[in-house]
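cron nightly-structures :: item 1 of 1
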Amino acid sequence: MATKVSSLTESGILAGITVVMAIIAMYVPLVGILAVLLWPLPMILLLVRHGLKWALMSVATAIVVTAALVEPMASLRLAVSFAPTGLALGIGYRRHWSGVKIFSTATIASIIAKGLGLYIVFLITGIEPFSGQLELMPQQFEQSVAMYQSMGMSPEQIEQARQNFMENMRMISLLLPMVVLIMGILDTALNFWAGGIMLRRFGEPVPVFPAFTEWRLPSFFAYLYAFSILGMYWGDTHSIPLLYKIAVNMNMAGTVAGLVQGVSVYQAAVSHYKWPSLMSNIVMVLLVLSGIGTQLIVFTGLFDTVFDYRRRMGWQK
């Protein structure tokens, strides 16, 4: 009985915190962004300490109260976009999964949830997500032309700036799926980190990630990158916009994965050979800031997913 009362009390408190975070997310600039990203935290704690039933009841209560206080559709979008992340993390922590399994499962759930959230926006408004903002940006550029003229820019320079701006807008529109992917990873990483801190304070066991020098991504990313190059070439030369858009996003995903893996390989070498940390960090920054250096790191990382340099060179067992 005491346990049930404790679960009910803690559920009510955490549901109230969830509602407050939702209100902050809707009405407080800047801080609201952080409140949105951390909105799953209360349900993570509740699920780990009291189980899935109490977490779902808390989420349902928070959705109803938030809908009454703010706006029903905003409450629904928030729940659909962010609750699955909290539930996946909470289930992983409660079942004592490894850190890698928790993070990867929650990331997949988060990415799917962000996609569903955007789909709800499309169903409600009939407007493709982000399209409204992208359509306004060229208008905002045109409004800035007078400022550029007052700064002494020639018509040729302004026209060149306009072309560069439009090319950037085209690339942003192509990479919208990648934006959803990044949002899902960012949301998961932030809640994984904050959730771990919170659970440790309550005495709950929390798995940790392997050391960064031991990270090894699946070889899938190397093949993804290779196929993306073929897809971009085929889509561009045969005028297949959908194929080109998919390939561009695949290429970006492979590039990010290769960059992370490449930096991990570099740090493993630094650790193995005991290079001076300050000089090693300076070299890494210079490589990342250099276009050729970045590509070198990306290709190193992608090849490592297939050949595992660290094991072959004896840096790791």
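cron nightly-structures :: done
Residues 241-273 form the longest helix (33 residues).
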